[in-house]
Amino acid sequence: MTITANNQLLNLFSQHLESTNRATDASSATIGCELIYTQDQTGCYLAFDWQYDQLLNLSTEKIIDVLNEHEIFVPVDQAIYQQRLHQVLKTLTPERFQCWFKCNQQQLVELELIMTPIMPKWGQPANTVMVMGRLLPSAVNSQEVNQRVRTASKIELSLGYRSVQQVSLRYQKLLHKITRNIRRTLDINIIWQRTVDSLGKTLNLQRCVIFPYQPKNEKVQIIAEYHQPELKPLLGLEVEISSTPAFNQVLTTLEPVITEIPIPNHSQLEKFLLFATNYQDQPNALVGLSLSQDYQLLTETELELTKELADQLGTAIAHAILYQELEDARKNAEEASRLKSEFLANVSHEIRTPLNGMIGFLKLILEGMADDPEEQHQFVSEAHELSIHLLNILNDILDIAKIEAGKMELDCSPVKLQELFIDVENFTRPQAEMRNLSFQMQMPVTSDEIIVQGNYQRLLQVMLNLVSNALKFTHEGGVTISADVVIKKGKVKSNKPQTPGMVKVRVADTGIGVSLDKQDKLFQLFSQVDGSRTRHYGGTGLGLTISQKLIEAMGGEVHFYSLGEGLGSTVTFTVPLYQQPVIYLPTECEIDNDG
Q1: Distance (Å, rounded) from C-alpha 78 to C-alpha 186?
Q2: Identical fold at 8-150 and 164-325?
Q3: 371 to each of 185, 247, 339, 356, 375, how far by Cα in Å?
Q4: pLDDT confidence bin for 3, thresholds 50/70/90
Q5: How far apart are CA 417 and CA 141, in angstroms?
């Protein structure tokens, strides 16, 4: 049985190639489409006609030769396009698809195409296709065409104009290359620079910058930058997040945006693709990739690339920051352990010294080694002084233990500053005179008493500690103790109880001072500026720390100042006023008489 197929589609494509060529040589408008061309099995153009051929900037009559010799009008993904062409020729079945084309190497247009095989003579393989198409969307005019034709971005150019599948593979390799280079180190400072260098070089950018970010940040600053030599550097540039909508948007949504960043001392704005690196949906940096000024749109490829970059870079940054924090914690723990060991060694020495002295003097008395009652009394007095010194050391240790445990409770009441200064002078002036040091105490001139709010015994403890330290570390010159009244101006909104002002007490000496790089250790627990100095001068090294905690518990602050070794020191502390004193101001007559 013979079956004859009456297929109009086959009859349509059974026309000879020459007739098709003649059809395409005529205007494409005669067959109702914008674009029509024929190609052989290698993809070479045989005939071509396009309603919007002005986009190709072709003025030559040899249009086929130009199309075949130069990349004037080629698919973005030539490999996938060639596969479709071969599939159509093999199956003799038309296909309809959408495809991006590259015009003049820099412009991109999206087309909807129908590719059909041109049927050969009986018994011969098909080797030619006819393609008809249109610009997307369907209703277009010349202005819409110009809107949809755009310059390819550097990111797309760097990816080599691949298809979706090949782009995915291409940028996965690109991401692997970038992140592999970054993850070779866990030093966060190196990672910042490697990130911008890798992105800038791999994507062939004019500039790439990175802003580290933490949730508490109100501003971000460029900490690392890659740029071409002819561009001005932006390193150190600060951007306020709240006043920059694009930065705020990226940090909030984690979606990339295109924005402009002002260049210091320059009227021009630079356009950037800005995206946030993130870890577990929390941003940890902002990255800016430079774009050309006429760039407006983000393709799906670029969105996918930047989101994947943001995730992988954010993970690398988070791991580096975590490693840095763990490393810092380890070093701090080791330092704390070392300081505690050194502290215990010094404290044990401080405890044994007076204890051994007490035992020695008491043994001399018990063995009858005193020559007379006067010498025996002297031995007892020395043992008593050593016991007081030992008690003070133990009190310091107990105080710091209470403070660290949060069990230090202070009962504050009105304290007369004059009485406090008198008691301090009675205890410490003899020490200064024994060492031939000057000793001065200066009170502010007021018409009534200065009364502060605090704990008398603890204030006395703080002042004795500060003055004793000043005397201990001063070999010549002297010590000056002074006070100033600082009246509060205006009303300050605060949850703390309101006071009329503060009294600032200063203890200044002309002693050995402290170098600038070691002053931050003075208030650290168990930390001593110089272990050898502590052994030479004695003491536990807890005095300033205890004084700071006690003053803070009374609502004040402690500060230390020194210009360096050999330049003396000044320690100040503040304590709230109980009531505002009337400050005495001399009259003009008194000033003249004094003059």
Answers
A1: 41
A2: yes
A3: 76, 87, 46, 22, 6
A4: very low
A5: 90
Enumerate residues 6+ apart whose C-beta is below 8 A from 38: 17, 20, 21, 24, 45, 46, 47, 48, 118, 128, 129, 130, 131
DSSP assignment of 538-562 equals ---S-HHHHHHHHHHHTT--EEEE-
Does the domain at 164-325 match CATH 1.10.150.130? Answer given as no
- pLDDT digits over 549-576, tens only? 889 888 899 999 888 888 899 999 999 9
The pLDDT value given to residue 503: 93
- The closest alpha carbon to 213, from 279, 258, 270, belongs to 279
State which fold the 328-403 domain adopts: Helix Hairpins (1.10.287)
Whole-angstrom Cα distance, residue 31 to residue 23? 9
- Helix %, strand %, coil % for the chain, to 5? 45, 25, 35
Degrees, nearest 5: CA angle 557-563-567:
115
Report helix, strand or coil for 277: strand
Question: Which amino acid makes up residue 473?
Answer: F
- Residue type at 442 in one-letter notation: Q
Q: Of 38-42, 346-350, 374-378, which has the strongest mean pLDDT?
A: 38-42
What DSSP element (H or E) covers 507? strand 501-509
Q: 366: exposed, middle or buried (C-beta count within 10 Å: 0-12, 13-18, 19+)? A: exposed
What pLDDT is attached to residue 26?
A: 43
How far is 79 from 127, CA to CA, in rounded Å?
Answer: 17
The C-alpha atoms of residue 320 and residue 322 are separated, in whole angstroms, by 5
What is the model's pLDDT at position 137? 55
| CB under 8 A, 24+ apart: contacts of 113-116 | 113/35, 115/84, 115/85, 115/88, 116/13, 116/88
Going by pLDDT thresholds of 50, 70 and 90, the confidence category of residue 1 is very low
Residue extents of the structural domains in the chain: 8-150, 164-325, 328-403, 409-490+498-576
Token pair belonging to 361: 């003097």
pTM of the full predicted structure? 0.44
pLDDT at 132: 93
User: Residue 32's pLDDT band (boundaries 50, 70, 90)?
Assistant: low
CATH superfamily membership of 8-150 = PAS domain (3.30.450.20)
Concatenated DSSP letters for 342-362?
HHHHHHHHHHHHHHHHHHHHH
Higher-confidence residue of 537 and 96: namely: 96
Give the Cα-Cα-Cα angle 543, 546, 550 (nearest 5 degrees). 135
- Helix (H/G/I), strand (E/B), else coil: 43: coil
Tokens of 454: 């605090």
DSSP 400-451: HHHHHHT------EEEEHHHHHHHHHHHHHHHHHHTT-EEEEE---BSS--E
Tokens of residue 51, six digits: 């309603």
Query: Is a pLDDT exceeding 60 seen at residue 587?
Result: no
pLDDT recorded at residue 556 = 92
**409-490+498-576: CATH class:** alpha beta
Residue 265: DSSP 8-state: T
